[in-house]
Every structure is written in C-alpha cells, then in structure tokens.
C-alpha cells in the first residue's frame, strides 16, 4: 500500500473570498483558507487565500480565535481550533452513525487488518465520518473528514449506485477526475458498474485511487431501509479475497443497521 | 456504569447573541445556538437562542447552509453539517494526537474493556478528542468533542496538575461544579490531589461524575517533554484494579509519545 495524495479540498462556494459580499461570508472565507495542505497559516496567508485586506482578515481572525474556531500557536501562525471539533461532534449524520458503527468497524479492522471507512454522501462527494487505518509501514492516509469524488472510492460508488437516477446522471455528466490509470472515468462503464453494485449489493473497486489497493464496500441502511452510509475495507490487492471481505462487510452493515433501528 | 448527564455546553463568549455587535459575531452566535441538548433546531429556535431577529437569523442560516456548516432536514429543522466535520479534522491538536494515539487507545480498550478517553486542555476545560466506549448495556456516554471542567474528570485532573500554578489557582478559585457526592470541590483537597498526581504520575478519580465509576488517567508528553494530553480508562469501580490500569496506561502513554516524536 502506498500513501495516497491528499483529498482535494473542495469549496462548494468557490475559493475567492473577494466574491463574498457579506461580513458573514467573509468570515466563512477565512475558514475556507484552511485545508489539508494548509493546516497552519500566517495572517497574511489567510488574507491572501481568503481574498481579504489585512485589516479585515486581522479583525475576523481575532473574532474566530476568541470564539475558539481558530488557535494561534507560539510562532503566531493560525490553525483550526477545538471548538470546531466540539461543534462538529453535534452533526447528527456524523455522530449517530459513527457511534452505531464504531464497534463493528473495530471488528472489521481486527478481522481484515485493512483500512476501514464509513462514508456518507455530501453533495456530489463522499465524506469519511470514520476511518480506522491499518497498522504498518505505509498505511493509506485516509482520515475522518476526507472528501472524495464519488466515482473514485468504494464507499462513493455504493452511495452513488443507490442515489436518485437524476443525481447519478448529473455526476456521470460532470468531469470525472482520474487518480490512477485504473480509475473508471468512462460514463458508460461507470453506469454498468453502478448497475452491478445495485444488483450484487457490493462494490469492488480495484486501484481506483492507488494501484495496489482493492476496496470492497457495501451500503448501510437506516431503519426506513434507505441507504444512509457505506462502509468499506481497503487492502493490498495481492492479499485481497473480495468475496470474504464482502461477507464480513455485509454482516457488519446489518449489525450497524440493527443498532440504528428503533429501540424497543 | 450508568449514563452520565450530558457535558454542559459552555460558550466562552456568552450565550446572548444580542451582545455581539458584528455581523461575523452574529454568525458565530447562530452556531452557538447548537449544543448537546439542542442538536436540531427550527429557524425560530435558532433566532431566539442566538438573540437575533427572524429575518437576520434566516439570512445567516441560509449562508451557513450554503457553505455546509448547517444542514436542513426534510421537516425543515437545522443541524450541524458535515463541512464542520471536515474542517475540524484539520485541527492539529486534534488530528495528530488522535492519529498517534488511536492504535494504542484501541489496545487499551481491548485489554481493559473500559471507556477510553484522550483529552486536551482548552481554556479551563478538557475536551475529548477521542473516546472509545465500552460495549455493554449502559456504557458511559462520553463522546468526541465533549467538554468538561478539569476538576471533575481523570484526564482533566492530570492536565490541571501539570499546568502553570497560576492557571491552577485560577481554576481552584473559580466555582467548582459538583456532579456527584464524590466530586472533590474543596480547593485545599484538590490542591493535595494535584500534588499527588504530579508525584505519582497517575490520577485516580473515584465517582467524580458517576458514583460507580473509577477513572485512572496519565499524561501524554510531546517530544519536548511537555504534557500535551491525557489518556484515561473508566471502568466500574467494583471491578477496578487501579494499579494494573495505571501500568497499562503508562505503557500506552509512552508508546503515543514515541509516535509523536521526531522521525529519523
């Protein structure tokens, strides 16, 4: 397994802070300045990335530090603060699913020794609300909060396969990024792939992001029977047994759904 | 073990949104309206809790939904959205520590079958950046993002014991909330308690929050030798072996520090 490139940081509202006319919007553009490749920023870097003047950035950063959204380190650089962790723990889609799923994801990790992901759809992307990384010298660097295009990951393919046909077509018609020579970016091939996932209940994705990896993913249904999330195991392709992985994943998925179900 | 009350939601900037003069401040007061007991809110509830007029709340909520900080469900109620989860994953204090610690916390959980916490200090409180809950009918309901006064939890006592004397005195002089009849709220007794923690390197807290529980906690040091976090195990007091727990915790803490250390 090799370390994958960091998930592209997408801002659905556009990166240019200058295009945000409201004060509240400018504050959000300060937060948008931070990303996987920009975890700590100086004040002038924030101003530049957010498209703000230095005095405006200074005032907004001050408010955000006071509130706890940002923290200032000893060298005067800023990073995301713990108040946002606290707040994000209130996200119902993140928290309930994560708590229901965690023991079962832990079991999956113990049994398969692979990287485990719990993903939900957000817009046209999948966001990992839980990730357990395999131990070893080169674990896949997936993290909680990572965001990926749906066509490129096991969990994303499962979620896309069970979405409205309209949304599927919207994704298939959009530019599909290629992460490796194996990434399926042909809309017709993807459409067949999605049909097979619906039919079998399992997505098997080979080398979609990093060549030596194989991802197996299945849906997780809520008490109403809707697909609320997807779970996946990523292992090195040379030691992968996709059928066995699909069996343990399906078992885990059912256990999670039972935990999500209405209590007696 | 019994289910503990939800951690009090503290807003260090005060709850009244009306006292926030700036537009950016009003946006933060919308986010402050959400808490452990207020995970989903209607627009009018947000306006009332944030001290805003309905039109102002409507406009700010619209911006926050567009950005992904809030989500609107089918019934028109709002909750915290996944964009905040994504952003909070960038918090260096949360992420690096969590990743370095996770395999060792998992081992602790397997060995002790208890609730495991990884906490860092934020202001005068401890925030759990990781929590693994014991399985069973009534696990302690600690969650990632939970925030507690330092005097009341094992991790908080460890962090407080290793803080500047000035901050210690500030905490000891402040009103100390009592969560159970066992919560130590007498400043002199607490001061002795903190000295013992510094001397032994271990905090043993009995029934500080819920009577039948015993927490054992130890510090986690960064490569510079500073206390960066604390880890704890919480088990039912009747089956607790504090010395053994202290041994495995110390072992895990050293392993985490080694992972945090400079790579060759």
From TrEMBL, chains A, B:
Keywords: DNA-binding, Glycerol metabolism, Transcription, Transcription regulation
GO molecular function: DNA binding; DNA-binding transcription factor activity
Superkingdom of source: Bacteria
Domain IclR-ED: 83-262
Record keyword Ion transport present: no
Pfam annotation, one family: HTH_IclR
Region (Disordered) residue spans: 1-22
GO BP of this protein: glycerol metabolic process; negative regulation of DNA-templated transcription
Residue ranges of domain HTH iclR-type in the record: 21-82
Transmembrane portions of the chain: none
Presence of the UniProt keyword Protein transport in the record: no
Function, as annotated: May be an activator protein for the gylABX operon.
The name this protein goes by in its record: Glycerol operon regulatory protein
Source organism phylogeny: Bacteria, Bacillati, Actinomycetota, Actinomycetes, Pseudonocardiales
